C-alpha cells in the first residue's frame, strides 16, 4: 500500500469495532459483554480494552457457563480476568436446571447449547443489563448475515429478523422502551480469517485448545468429539488418541475437532486458508436443521 | 509483533460494495460466482444449498440460497433484507451489502449503499437500461458512492456481441449525465458462465478492459476519504481513575476527516475554546499522528469542558453551523412523515430533536422527475426537505464528507429509525 494515509483491512475493522463498543457505553446505562473463552470473545474483549485505554473497561463481562466447558477454557478465562483486572460475572446453566426452568437433554447427542438461552435471558433480567455485547460474526452462519450491529430485543428477549431497524453509515440507534434490551455485535464484519490474522497481528494469547495436541477422541458421524465426562458414549464407540486441534470452542458435547498439526498462529492461518469446510461445519448444534441458528436466535440466543 | 513481519498476510485493503437486483437479473448468480471462484464458499455451505435446492425443486443448484439466509426468504425465493457477505483475495477483503432490487425495497438499497465504496449495477443484456437500472444508479449517486461498476450481464444470451454492449453503454452514459457520479466502469459479463467475472472471457475477445474482479481489486479508494478537513466528533470521555493516570482526561472518538498530529492547535465546537493536542493514545502506546478512519483517544494540554457530541477540529476548513438544515431524505417507515412533526435526530455523536419544516419536492425514483405538489412522504419516498433543529448542528455537506453530512430521524413514540438524511 503506497498511500501514507491508508490502513489495512484489520486496522479498519478494529477502528469500526472500537467505535461500536464506545457507542454502547455512551448509549446504554448498564451494558455487559458476553464472554465464552472462545477466540471471537477474546478478540472482542481485546478491542474493548483498546477502546477505553488507559482506563479499565467500564462494564463487566458475563460468562454463561454450561458446565460442559473444557477445563482449559476456564483456566484461560480466570487467568485473563486476573491479569487484566476485569470483573467477571458467571451464570450457570446448572442453576437453571436445578430451578426447573429447563430440562437437561439426555441421550448420546445431549447438548446444553439451547438451554443457555434461558440462563442468558435470566442473567440479563436479574442484573438489569440493557445491552449485552456478543462476539457473533455475520460470516458464521446465514441467519447471522442478516444481523445488525445494534440488534433490538423485545421484552421477551426475542429477535424479529423481519422487523429490524435500518442501520446506515456509522449511526447506531440504541433507543428502547423499558424492559427491552439490545444485543450488540462489535465484530459483525470480521471473518474467521480476520480474527486469526488479528490475533497474530496483536499477539493475543489464546487457549491451548486451538493448537495441535494429542487427545482421546471419538469419531461420531464424521465429527471428532473429545472423550470426557460430559460426552455419553454409544456402545460401539471406543475413544482413541489422535493429534487434533479445535477451530471453535464451545461445549465439549458439541464442539468438533479437526485433525491438525498446526502449532503456531501462522500454521493455523495457513490451515484456515486451505480448508474447505466452515468452522461451524464441525458444530453439532447447527446441524439439527437448516434454520437451527435462526430459530435459536429468535428465542434470544447469543 | 511488528506489522512488517506479517506483511503479505496483512497488506490488504478493505473494500465495501453494494449490489441491488431482483431474482431475474442474475445478481445472486454473480455473487455466488465471485464467492465460489474466490473460494469463499465452503463445502458444507454448498451441501446445504444443494439440499435446499432439491427441496424447492429448482433442478440446478441455486446460488441465491447462499445469500437468502432467513427461512421466509428461502421459502418465498426473495431477498427481503440487506445481507452482508464476505470474501477476500490476496489484495483485498471485500464486504458485500447485498440488497433486493424492487422499488418496495428502496430503503434496503439506501441502507446497503450508505457504507459502500463501490456500487455494482447489473443490467440484463437482453433488456438494456430499464427503470430499475435508473433507480439503482440514482440511489448510488444520492448516497454518493464514489465508484460505479456497471456489469452488463447475460452476454451469452446476446451471442457475446460487442454492439449489444456498446449500445447499452451509450444508453447508460445518457442517464449518468443526470446523476452525480464521477467514476463509471463498464464490464460485459456472463455471471452464469463466468465470463469476465474472475477470468477473462474467451467469447468476447473484442473487450480489452479488465475483469470485474480485477476492477474490484484495483479501483483506487484511498482518496475517497477527506484527509484535509479535520473532524473529530467526541464519542466518549475516558477517565482512568488510576494512580499513574491521575489527571488524565481522554477524548475518545473516530476521526471522520483529516489528520491530527501531536502538538496541533485545536478548536472545540461549539464552545470555540482552543487548546493543543498533548497525546494521541492508542492501546498501551502514544502515536505522533492519526487520521481518518482511525479510532483514537486525544488528550489536550488544557483542562476544558468537553463532552460527547462536541467536535474537535484544527483551525482550517471549518464546518458549517445552522439550525435550519436542508437535506435529501429516504423515508423508511410505513407510518408517513408528519409535516410539522417532531423527531429525534442522530448526527455524528450528537442526539437532538427537530421539527419538519417543509417538503421542497419529492423525487420519482423511476423517472427522476421532481414533484413539488405532493407533500406526502411515505415508505421508500425520496424527497428534499427542510428541518429545524433544537440547537445548531456542526456539519459538512454530504457531498463533502459522508459522515459529517449524514443523519437519521427517529420516531419518538416507537424509537424506530424512520429516515436517513443527506445534508445538502
Structure description:
The complex is a heterodimer of chains A (about 300) and B (about 425). Chain A is an alpha/beta fold and about 300 residues long. Chain A folds into 2 domains: about 10-195 and about 290-300, Rossmann fold (3-Layer(aba) Sandwich); about 205-285, no CATH class. In chain A, about 30% of the residues lie in helices and about 15% in strands. Chain A is built from 8 helices and 10 strands. Chain A has helices at about 10-25, 40-50, 70-85, 95-100, 115-125, 190-200, 265-275, 290-300, and strands spanning about 30-35, 60-65, 90, 130-135, 150-155, 180-185, 215-220, 225, 240-245, 255-260. Chain A has a 6-stranded mixed beta sheet with strand order 3-2-1-4-6-5, sandwiched between helices. A 4-stranded antiparallel beta sheet of chain A has the order 8-7-9-10, with no helix packed on it. The radius of gyration of chain A is 19 Å and the shape is globular. The relative contact order of chain A is 0.16. Chain B is α+β, with helices and mostly antiparallel strands. Chain B folds into 3 domains: about 15-225, P-loop containing nucleotide triphosphate hydrolases (Rossmann fold); about 230-315, Elongation Factor Tu (Ef-tu), domain 3 (Beta Barrel), CATH 2.40.30; about 320-424, Translation factors (Elongation Factor Tu (Ef-tu), domain 3). Chain B is about 20% helix and about 35% strand. Chain B has 8 helices and 22 strands. Chain B has a 6-stranded mixed beta sheet with strand order 2-3-1-4-5-6, with helices on both faces. At the A-B interface, α1, α2 and α6 of A face α2, α4, β2, β3 and α5 of B.
Provide the CATH architecture of the largest domain in chain A: 3-Layer(aba) Sandwich
Average pLDDT metric of chain B: 89
- CATH topology term of the largest domain in chain B: Rossmann fold
**Lateral strand order in the biggest sheet of chain B:** 2-3-1-4-5-6
Number of helices of chain B: 8
Beta-strand share of residues of chain B: 35-45%
Number of domains of chain B: 3
Shape of chain B: globular
Distance between the termini of chain A: 37 Å
Cα separation of the termini of chain B: 45 Å
How would you classify the helix and strand content of chain B by structural class?
Answer: alpha+beta
Q: Radius of gyration of chain A from the CA trace?
A: 19 Å
CATH superfamily of the largest domain in chain A: HUPs
Strand order of the largest sheet of chain A: 3-2-1-4-6-5
Largest interface: A-B, 69 and 87 residues
CATH architecture of the largest domain in chain B: 3-Layer(aba) Sandwich
Cα Rg of chain B: 24 Å
Largest sheet of chain A: 6 strands, mixed
Major β-sheet profile of chain B: 6 strands, mixed
